[in-house]
Amino acid sequence: MTRETAFILLSEKIQTPNLIKHCLAVEAGMKEVAKYFGEDEEFWGLTGLLHDLDYEDTKNDFSQHGIKTAEILQDRVPEFVLYAIKAHASKVPPQSKLDYVLYAIDPLTGLIVASTLMHPDKKLQSITVEFILRRFEERRFAAGANREQIKECEKIGIPLEQFIELTLAGMQKISTDLGL
């Protein structure tokens, strides 16, 4: 599946603009982390772009989240992509670097967006890793961004600070698309 085809599919399945932006943010972060590990940036990006493909279909039955996406994408993407998507939704345990990165980056992008929106100029370009780390320590801030899940990045040998730095760098590259 090409990135263009994946984006068309995402646009057909997701109607909420902020959810599409979230998928773009995850894609951008995944590509940066893939580059760090010397992995395939396109497959990692594709995994991030499509990870919430079924979100609007499963929001009333979250037990199906990730599973429906795997069904939709079956025969279109490699099995390791499907596994990572199911792992991000806690349907299977993370095993590979791809699995852990998607699992951890999903809430991290939300924390970065929330941090940006509380910054005086509301621009991703103005945000620093230190600013995000301070927000990370404020448990009430962006409470939905599961800090323990974000810290899972450390299980594959990438320190939290560096993980934030890579994810932020990826998101900053597409700040216009994110409206930030």
Characterization of the model:
- The structure is a single chain.
- The chain has one domain (3-178): Hypothetical protein af1432, CATH 1.10.3210.
- It has helices at residues 3-13, 17-37, 41-50, 55-58, 67-73, 79-88, 97-118, 129-137, 147-150, 160-173, 175-178.
- The chain has eleven helices and no strands.
- α2 (17-37) packs antiparallel against α3 and α2 crosses α10 (160-173).
- The model has no long low-confidence stretch (mean pLDDT 97).
- The longest helix has 22 residues, at 97-118.
- Helices cover 64% and strands 0% of the residues.
SSE topology:
Elements: H1 3-13, H2 17-37, H3 41-50, H4 55-58, H5 67-73, H6 79-88, H7 97-118, H8 129-137, H9 147-150, H10 160-173, H11 175-178
Question: Remind me, CATH topology?
Answer: Hypothetical protein af1432
Helix % is 55-70%
User: Can you write the helix and strand succession as a string?
Assistant: HHHHHHHHHHH
| Overall shape | globular
Mean pLDDT, nearest integer? 97
| Distance, first to last CA | 28 Å
Number of domains: 1
The main sheet comes to: none
Low-confidence stretches: none
Supply the CATH class. Mainly Alpha
